[in-house]
Amino acid sequence: MYIVIFVNTLAVLFSYLSKYNKFSYGFELAFFCLILFYGVRYNYGNDYISYWQMFDEIASYRSFVLFDDSVRIEPGWILLNKIFSGCGFPFLVFFLTIFQFLSIYYFIKRFVPINKRYIALFIYLFSFDLMLLELSMMRQTIAIFLTMYAVVFLLNQKFIFFSIFALLAPMFHVSAWIITPAYIILLFRFKVATNFQLSFLLVVLFLFLNIDSLNEIFVSLITSHLNTYAVYLDRGAAELGSGLGLTFNLIIMLCILFTINRQSAAIQFLYKWNLLAYIVLPFGFLIDLIARVGFYFSFCSFLVYPFWFSSLTPKYLRQIVVSCCIFYILYSFWLSLNHDIYAPYYSNYQSIFLNENSLYK
Fold first, then answer.
1. DSSP state string for 287-335
2. How far apart are CA 251 and CA 257, in angstroms?
3. Average pLDDT per 10 consecutive residues for the chain, totaling 361 residues
4. pTM of this prediction?
5. Which residue of 87, 201, 321, 334 has the fewest CB atoms within a 10 Å radius of its CB?
6. Distance CA 305, CA 312 (A)
7. What interhelical angle do 26-39 and 2-17 show, nearest 10?
8. Residue 41 pairs with which residues in a beta bridge?
9. Phi, psi torsion values for 295, nearest 5 degrees
10. Distance, CA of 230 to CA of 218 (rounded, Å)
11. DSSP 279
12. Apex 119 CA angle, 19 and 123, nearest 5
């Protein structure tokens, strides 16, 4: 656990120093360290071993079958596993780690100015639902990143590339089909007026207050059209707990709503995508699959945070909110690492070089 915190902190420090000319390579050095460290991980994350077993299963296929209704494995994941079947699962993990962190490197450099990049990296590395969970849920991580690339291409009005990436995402995780209508919202470039801000807030509150009555609609939708993923209906969804996390998310939502008009058109584009996560949020407390859908929208939060951080006024309010936000992120990160569900898989970092079974399995 402590080595993970140390490496993450070191990467954020390198990123911070990159704004000075004498250490201009710091941002690149940060990602080099992250790729090396996480790329050689072994049995780190809830799903690591199950993905290894799936890898061995796919490698044993005698025929090259991408579409098989008898198994719940997307064709893109089957193809990727087949490509690396001759090398071994650790090589697939290293490849996915490179893809993950180089994508983060691209997104931050694309949208975030150099003096704010360390903030974006801090948010990504220390928000448990971002970096650490993405190391574990490998299929959906690919789908999330492909979706984000699709959003970027949509922003740049490169519709052919947008279509390719938007269609590729569900080939790795079927949940990406559910968010397809959300792309349409981004096509409408509108100014967020006060009426919209208040209406959006009321809609989110309405969903929370009426979640029980709306639950049946989503259960019916999943069982009728996504029956292979009906297993998520029997799994424990997000727990409300003390309500601290919910309160934190609602405060962040308000900060995003009331600073969106102070941003450039490109950042407003990301703001709107991120705001969709708050529409999905209430349903995540009932259905695990819906919570997973929310990851597609909440993913870009590490790109959005630095902008509303600097846009809050007056200064004393910004200092209070930002300080509370950083504290909560670190507090939540620590709690997650020590949670009964995650602690057995995240508390102890292991390397493939220190585990003989990982090399010769």
1. -HHHHHHHHHHHTTHHHHHHHHHHH-SSHHHHHHHHHHHHHHHHHHHHH
2. 10
3. 91 93 90 95 89 87 57 84 89 95 96 93 93 92 96 91 94 88 77 71 79 68 60 52 72 87 87 88 70 87 91 84 89 87 86 64 49
4. 0.87
5. 87
6. 11
7. 160
8. 351
9. -60, -30
10. 11
11. H
12. 150
- Cβ–Cβ under 8 Å, residues 27 and 18: yes
Place of tokens 């992250």: 34
Q: Which H/E stretch holds residue 253?
A: helix 244-257
Token pair listed for 129: 């639902």
Name the packing angle between helices 117-126 and 89-111 (round to 10°). 140
Residue for token pair 């959003």: 151
Amino acid letter for position 176 = A
What's the token pair of residue 146?
């492909």
Structure tokens at 273: 């995508």
- CA distances in angstroms from 37 to 42, 93, 218, 353, listed in the order given: 11, 12, 40, 11
> Can you tell me the distance from the alpha carbon of 328 to that of 334, in angstroms, rounded to the nearest whole number?
10
Distances in Å between the alpha carbon of 134 and those of 12, 122, 143, 224, 285? 18, 15, 11, 28, 20
d(CA 100, CA 140): 12
